[in-house]
Specification:
- The structure is a homodimer of 328-residue chains.
- With 328 residues, chain A is an alpha/beta fold.
- Chain A has 10 helices and 15 strands.
- Chain A has a 6-stranded mixed beta sheet, with helices on both faces. A 6-stranded mixed beta sheet of chain A has the order 6-13-12-11-14-15, sandwiched between helices.
- The first copy, chain A, starts with 15 loop residues before the first strand and ends in a 10-residue tail after the last helix.
Chain lengths: 328, 328
């Protein structure tokens, strides 16, 4: 039975628009002052497909789509953004904070974007500069900020799957090191453009950790990450000699790539407690299976919850968001 | 001073046309009865670009190009072929010999192709069927045949670089095991289609083993082949944070991929004598540097010489090629 209006708690009023704008997609939420999501929009308008100079128009269109939640407010809500929207090829370059970075300082590096009737701030990325290795992230730092808000002294290894997966070392709520692995992009390239395309023939992976192809690929990848290059072609040979193709072959490719990634990352990591896995949906299931198969415990952190927590925390640093505050 | 016609040794008469027809290119030679090359043609008409049913016409066009060497013969020369031309998507499927394979038996598995005025034989490929792994090769078995003709009891590891590199274990002139690594194809895919394309910006690798980018990538790849996936993105980050791009970045990609391949292959190999490297040109230089950097000796075998030796040996099994024989 729906609650009657008399019994219903008062709905929080909208306080801020939070945007996670990555390479391949954009997600925007209207959040209440406590961070509760009141409305949401998703689109495939990632940085890769937005033309230079086109970011503001795309954002305004998304705000239009969130209109029902925004109508009738005395003035426009402020907008807090993270991800590739702050890259050099994005809306406005938001710079990098240099590792080691206490995550509670992420908001301090934000870049303001002034535009007619818009008050927007883009959070910075993180950069690792070592004599032997460079690395960068944009967007994941905001998920990590959300994570440490719940666990201020979090330490240990964090796995953040995606097109460019991040493996992050936390030490007492700070990022001390991280590495990017191009697993998602390699899967897409190999499926679509390599000799393996004849074997996969357009089939997607099932996304099921129990699928036979995923399990066999995962076991081989975990056991010998260095032989990944040598195992990929076995997918083609298995087609020619044993007729293994389509979804089973795609699952095997997925298992080999994720297995090699997880195997290499954990081989280099001290066994210091569970691995925090920041993910959702299909990737959460597959990486959970992979990390457990490697003999490590998993603590799952929902990626959407984490990024919203990080964004609302940053927003509170920029604007007063309490009920009755001037932003509403 | 050019030799006078009186002093010149009699040129051998043409005896056979030998064709190495791979995925991305075709090379054909007119050979004398002793295997000496009398004329040569090369083209980019590999299996990947020849339409189904189009192989015979392409071969006739190449024979036409070799016309000067073939004109005036009493009848057409026989043609011996190896490589992807014998694949299911090639001219005629030539089957596989199952490992272990004594290389002197390769010619026994040839497939005859009858066509108007053409007497052609395609050599078979090799297949590895193990419960845990399948693999296939086409073309390299003929180079290996050429190798064992000079060293009938050859044993040890053979490195055969290319789009799909082969690492072959020989035991007394037989192939006992082999593995394909997709290094060349990965280089092409990552250069052209991945996020790294922005960093390479169309630049080719220098192909120089002494180039700084190649040396740094090679050292990292050799040291930790399992971290290849994690090192690839450092090329992008090195561009964003340190401005390393173009040829230097392409060299680094080449070094990382070759280093990880060689490092993984040698880690799994007993230290039993020099590595035979069947290659020529740029790849011979780069892999020679990589194998030596891993602390192993190299014995270079010219890939073109080897494939011609294998093809002429097989041709002698099919047709009498001695001077004055009925083929001429």
């Amino acid at each position: 039975m729906p609650p009657t209006s008399a019994a219903a708690p008062r709905s929080p009023l909208p306080a801020v628009v939070a945007v996670d704008w990555g390479t391949s997609s954009l997600r925007a939420w209207v959040l209440g002052p406590d961070g509760a999501p009141l409305a949401e929009t998703r689109s495939a308008e990632g940085m890769d497909v937005v033309a230079a100079g086109g970011f503001e128009a795309v954002l305004r269109a998304r705000l239009g789509e969130l209109g029902a939640a925004l109508d009738g407010l005395p003035r426009p809500l402020p907008v807090v953004l993270c991800g590739m929207v702050g890259a050099r090829q994005g809306w406005r370059e938001a710079g990098y904070l240099e590792v080691p970075v206490p995550l509670l300082e992420v908001a301090d590096g934000a870049t303001a974007v002034a535009a007619e009737g818009l008050d927007a701030r883009i959070l910075p990325g993180l950069a690792l500069r070592r004599p032997e290795r460079h690395d960068v992230m944009r967007g994941e730092e905001t998920q990590l900020l959300g994570l440490v808000l719940h666990e201020p002294e979090a330490s240990g290894l964090v796995c953040m799957p995606g097109t460019h997966c991040k493996w992050v070392r936390l030490a007492s709520g700070a990022v001390s090191d991280f590495t990017t692995v191009m697993t998602g992009e390699l899967f897409a390239l190999l499926s679509r453009d390599s000799i393996l395309r004849h074997t996969l023939a357009g089939a997607a992976a099932s996304g099921e950790p129990e699928a036979a192809g995923f399990r066999s690929g995962l076991a081989e990848g975990l056991a010998e990450p260095g032989l990944l290059g040598a195992r990929l072609f076995s997918i083609r040979a298995g087609h020619l000699l044993a007729g293994i193709e389509g979804t089973e072959a795609a699952d095997r490719l997925s298992g080999l790539l994720i297995g090699a990634e997880v195997g290499a990352a954990l081989a280099a990591a001290a066994p210091d407690g569970p691995i925090r896995l920041v993910a959702s949906g299909r990737l959460a299931r597959l990486y959970d299976a992979a990390i457990r198969a490697a003999g490590r415990e998993v603590r799952l952190v929902d990626a959407d919850d984490a990024v919203r927590s990080g964004l609302i925390h940053a927003a509170r640093r920029f604007w007063p968001l309490a009920e009755g505050d001037p932003a509403r």
